[in-house]
Every structure is written in C-alpha cells, then in structure tokens.
Design a protein that fits this description.
about 280 residues, alpha/beta, Rossmann fold, 9 helices, about 10% strand, globular
C-alpha cells in the first residue's frame, strides 16, 4: 500500500478517535462508568460497534483518570449472528495490544429452532449469560457492551410502543447486589459516527447480517427513526433526553415517598427490554 495513503488513513483514524473519545469521556464522567482498579470484560462480537468499543476503551486508558484493565471476550456458538471480523484476526489484534482474549462457547441452534421465544431474545440471553459467567470467573467488576445512542433510542421507543412504559437501556446497570456492573461507554455516540471510524480503521468485517434480525421489531423501529432523523437530525437525542428526564422524575418521586409531606408514588422500573 502507498506509504502516503497509510499515513493519511492513520491521521484520519486519530482525528476521528479524538472526537469519539471525547464522547466516551463525557459518558464516563456523567454516568461514572469506570472506577480505579476495575477489571473490564469487553463483549466483542466482532461487528462494527463492539470493535469500536474495544478500540476506544484501549485508547481511553491513556487519558482516563481511572486506572483500569480490559480483556476481550467473543462468545462462539453454532448459530449465525451477523457480520464480524475473523476470529484469528481479532485474536492477533488483541495479542498485539496485550489484551487477554477469551472465546467461551455455547450451543444455540437446537434451542432457537425448537423454542417459542424469538431467536434474538434467546441468542442475546444465552450470550449475556456466558459473558456474566466468564466475568465472574475472571474476577471482573464490569462488563462493557457496545450499545450506542441509536440502540438507546430504539429501545426506548420499543418499551414505549410494546410495553407502554418510557424506559431506556441504562448506561450503567448493577447485577447480583453490585457484584457485577454492565456499562455502555458508547451511549453518547451515534451509529453514523461509528461507521466512518470503522472504515478508517480498516477492520476486516465480513459476512451476512443475522437473518432473524432483518424481521425483528428493532429493525422496524430503526427504519422509523431513520425517516424521522431525515426530517429532524436531533430526534434520537430528544428521545434519550425525554427518557432521562422521566427517570429523574421517578427518582424524585421515590425520594418523596420517604418524606411524610410528599404524596407522590411510583413503581420500580422494569429491566431493559431484550433486543
């Protein structure tokens, strides 16, 4: 490859990374995602979102006030689940950066083909379980997932349309009495900003999209949001802001319940809707 072209691509990667890292830094401070001494297991399917997450968390260690360790995990299964980088390439990428890389394996095909639940739900549930078990085995305090701002907005609308409740996919969720915490460092980054970064980095993402995903409710919501964003660029951020304001109001109401002078009531929010 032409040396000048390589240098130009490298400069573009650094410029785009600087922009994205500002959003990661903002999310970290706003939601207190990372703490000193954290061992973070990064979930890496090998697609554009998870590769961006892993790359940015690796870069962010150089500027973050918190000292944390990252390791990567790619859950392997007998069920096709979308476009991704080759496993061997990902292992080499991690090795060059001294990032421990793990590949837990699960069986999905029979459960998905014979079960009544949607393939997306069963796939997500089993992969998440495998990640949690691995994190516990490795002594990790955090599991980082690659959900970005579009995912947050889509989940908020899905909860509203199909559950009748205004709840988003939280940037930080504690499980098992705080023993393990899920964080979403890309929460303030939109998909349209991830795409050019992945292209500049040259991640060798290949394969076919998940066939079940093409027929999912999330895909339909994604199309609706795309049309809305075409008319008004800030729609996704408005949805996220509305959900956050709603959550703040609920928290105020909960605090008010504890005071005799207040009469507001509320209920505990449900868990995130599984994609």
């Amino acid at each position: 490859m032409n040396k000048t072209l390589v240098e130009t691509n490298a400069a573009r990667v650094e410029r785009l990374a600087h922009f994205l890292l500002r959003a990661v830094n903002k999310a970290n401070h706003k939601y207190r995602l990372l703490e000193g001494g954290d061992r973070v297991l990064v979930a890496v399917s090998g697609g554009k979102d998870s590769m961006t997450l892993l790359d940015l968390l690796y870069r962010y260690r150089r500027m973050a006030p918190e000292r944390y360790e990252i390791m990567a995990a790619r859950v392997l299964s007998d069920w096709h689940c979308g476009r991704s980088v080759p496993e061997a390439w990902l292992a080499a990428w991690c090795r060059e950066r001294n990032i421990a890389f793990y590949t837990p394996t699960i069986a999905l095909r029979e459960e998905i083909q014979t079960g009544e639940a949607s393939p997306c739900f069963r796939c997500t549930w089993n992969r998440r379980k495998a990640l949690f078990l691995l994190a516990d085995e490795l002594g990790c305090s955090k599991v980082a997932l690659g959900h970005h701002a579009d995912d947050i907005a889509e989940t908020t609308l899905m909860n509203l349309f199909y559950s009748g409740r205004l709840y988003r996919m939280a940037p930080k969720v504690r499980f098992f009495d705080g023993r393990l915490t899920v964080i979403r460092p890309l929460v303030l980054i939109e998909e349209r900003d991830i795409v050019p970064y992945v292209q500049a980095c040259g991640f060798p993402i290949d394969g076919e999209p998940c066939p079940a995903g093409e027929r999912s409710r999330r895909t339909m919501i994604k199309r609706i949001l795309r049309e809305l964003e075409h008319e008004s660029r800030g729609v996704k951020r408005s949805i996220m802001r509305a959900a956050e304001l709603h959550e703040r109001a609920l928290r105020r109401a909960e605090r008010c319940e504890e005071e005799p002078k207040c009469s507001s009531t509320t209920s505990e929010p449900p868990p995130d809707w599984a994609p």
